[in-house]
Each structure stands twice: as structure tokens, then as C-alpha cells.
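Before going further, learn to read the protein records used in this course. A complete example follows; check for yourself that the lines match position by position.
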Amino acid sequence: MSQYQENGGGQDPEGRGTPPQQPPPLPPGEYPGQTAGREPGYPGQQPGQPGYPVQPYGQPPQNPGMVLGVVGLVLAFFPVANIAGLIVSILGLRKSRRANMGNIPAVIGIVLSILSILGTIIFGIFFFTVIAHLVEVCNDLGPGEHFVDGVTYTCG
């Protein structure tokens, strides 16, 4: 035991009380109870020692690119708007990545937009090939209704 504890717990050997400890001086422009710019700590913790980070209560941080990712995902399903869906999804993913967050709807929107664009191109090639073939057949056969190889052509 220390000599302070032997003599009544808070008194020195002569019987006098221990002087009250003064709080450390506040930085300029700071008032008592204000903790701006200082990390929270525990009683007795030395200055400069990091404390546990404080997690704010309430909602988690918002993802800045989530809305763009969802809009891009929806636009991916429309044949004419799929290019816009690709662009919007990429912008949403970039915004989320800058905030160190993921954005699954944006990634899905990018993939579906690319697939939709490829499907639109393939369908367009097929459609125009069929139309070109019909125009060629009608030019060869002339106006009227024709039955060739089990297929009926109506040329006008």
C-alpha cells in the first residue's frame, strides 16, 4: 500500500487533503464541454492515444450512385434506351466507387445494357436482312400474290 492509502485514502502523511487536479487547458477558441477536433478517449487516457471510433446512430451512409444504377438498370430493358442505360449505369458505378461503395444495380445495368445492345444489333441485322430479301423477291416476281417454295409472297 502507498502512504496515501495508509493515511485515509486521499490525504498526504501530514493529514492535509490532496490538491484537486486541474483539467488540461483548452485550445484557443474552444469552450468547456466542446470536443471539436479531438478524438474521444477514456478517463486516464494519454493525449494523442487514439480511442475507439465513434459510430453515429441512425441511418447508414447513402450511396451517391445508387439511384443512377437503378435508373440504368431499368433503361437496359428498353431497346432504344439501352445505350442511355449503359451510360447512366457507368456514371452510377463511378460515383459509388469514388465514395468507396459498391453498386450492384449499376453492375447489373451495365451487363444487361451491353447484352441488350448486342441483341438489338443482332435483331436489326436479321430484320433488315429479311426485309432486303423480301424486296428482292418482290422485284423479281412483280406485283401480286405469289406462291414460291411453300411460301406466299404478297407484293404490292
Summary: The chain has a mean pLDDT of 81.
